[in-house]
Amino acid sequence: MRLTIFGSGYVGLVTGACMAEMGNHVICVDIDQAKIDRLNAGEVPIYEPGLDDYIHRNQEAGRLEFTSDIKKGVDHGLFQFIAVGTPPDEDGSADLQHVLAVANSIGSNMDEYRIIVNKSTVPVGTADKVKARIQAALEERRVAHEFDVVSNPEFLKEGAAINDFLKPDRIVLGTDNPRTTELLRALYEPFNRSRDRVINMDIRSAELTKYAANAMLATKISFMNELANIAEQLGADIENVRIGIGSDPRIGHQFIYPGAGYGGSCFPKDVRALAKSAADSGYEAKLMEAVEAVNFRQKRRLFGKISDYFGGDLQGKTIAVWGLSFKPNTDDMREASSRVLMESLWEAGANVRAYDPAGMEETGRLYPDQKGLELCESSQEALKGADALAIVTEWQEFRSPDFKLIKQELASSVVFDGRNLYDPVVMTANGLGYFAIGRDNAPSTSNGNPGRRKTDGTDTGTAG
Ligand SMILES: NC(=O)c1ccc[n+]([C@@H]2O[C@H](COP(=O)([O-])OP(=O)(O)OC[C@H]3O[C@@H](n4cnc5c(N)ncnc54)[C@H](O)[C@@H]3O)[C@@H](O)[C@H]2O)c1
Question: Of 106, 181, 333, 462, which is most buried by a Cβ count within 10 Å?
């Protein structure tokens, strides 16, 4: 089948590469010429495990093309996917300008029937706006062509995106007629083999399903972070509490990890946009507002612990920071907790020696010429001359570090762990001061660190 995908970011590239892998002919359109040039030169502009192979293989086979030529894109695909960004507006609502710009491009160029498939995360009612925009563009041209608009929200997780796309938990199709449902079913057939994953519903419910999923996951994280803070107040160990509640199948072990708050391009903006949609409709979404408020506070928690430790005086101190991306296995730094920590440290007059396995380039791009920032080539390098170590992202390589080396390098021999990666007993045995999330005041007889979080990015308290 022939597909066009507008937007060559995380969602567009993964969708394009996986659809091409199944034998479809895909054209990806982006207005960012530099990005298109890089893709055509064989470069993949984002870090996503496995994506390079999928893109290169399908590019070579002639099934995957990249262009900034809008007309070429609209002429090509029966399916016109929208996978552009929906960043937060100043008032928290989703900014639809890119989505509507694509709708305009399609209406201004289409010469025959098209199915517009919206994969961007958009508020309820956006499909109607897309429809109206296309219709207006057609009327301006004084032509009449049939088209359908479908909501097909994307649930992939950065860091595991290829696998998520190839083996989805569900394929949500929000449609308003059986013909488009059948055509989309056929398109998704290769991803729907062992059992039927298609969940067909009305368009508005499909749009809300995506927000509901992200809001639920964000709520789990904020709930655990709230409990972690309560545990600290009361002298309990949140890691024991986590195991204690996760064993109830109604609660489950997944996604209940306390940490330094969630970030990324989805949870923060989606929780805010859902609250705003609710408010605009006359309903006060108190839970969503609390989820956001708890997360805001949690992202400042690690800084608070560091500041307290040094008696509120961080002037001239140097903190090694391990983990900069918003979660492991991505280079995405959007709303990353590390940014809140580093910016607070700089404001307090401290220096940062930062290391991340994938996010160094992005950090350099975000903070060019930043005073007090040293980008280091390895985790060991970051420790050199530092007073303390802070861990913000649970990359695999931070799981079993050389504690003796950490002790040797750090002037103050203290570790602030924003992801509860280590056993407090082991840290003490190695002569290291250790502060984590929700366990700092617990008796040291706690049973180490039962059932550590996964560090492959699929089940994190960092989200996305
Ligand atoms: N990143 C994720 O993990 C994820 C997961 C599920 C859903 N989503 C949603 O999918 C959407 C896209 O997210 P993303 O992370 O891939 O975004 P992104 O910012 O990585 O990429 C968006 C791309 O769209 C391009 N673009 C903007 N306007 C355009 C236009 N008019 N025509 C063509 N291209 C245009 C931009 O240049 C950019 O390359 C968002 O709504 C997001 O909420 C994201």
Answer: 462
What distance lies between CA 201 and its chain's CA centroid? Answer: 26
Ligand 1, residue 265: give the atom nearest the CA: 1
Statement: residue 315 has pLDDT above 90:
yes
Strands 433-435 and 198-201: unpaired
C-alpha 86 – ligand 1 centre gap (Å): 7
Q: What is the pLDDT of residues 216-240, one digit of tens each?
A: 999 999 999 999 999 999 999 999 9
Instruction: Measure the CA–CA gap between 412 and 373, rounded to whole angstroms.
Output: 20
Q: Which two tokens stand for residue 108?
A: 């201004």
Per-residue pLDDT tens digits for 264-311: 989 999 999 999 999 999 999 999 999 999 999 999 999 999 999 999
Chain segment 318-364, per-residue pLDDT in tens: 999 999 999 999 999 999 999 999 999 999 999 999 999 999 999 99
- Whether 159 lines ligand 1, by a CB cut-off of 6 Å, is no
- Number of Cβ within a 10 Å radius of residue 254: 12
Short-list 315, 354, 351, CA closest to 338: 354
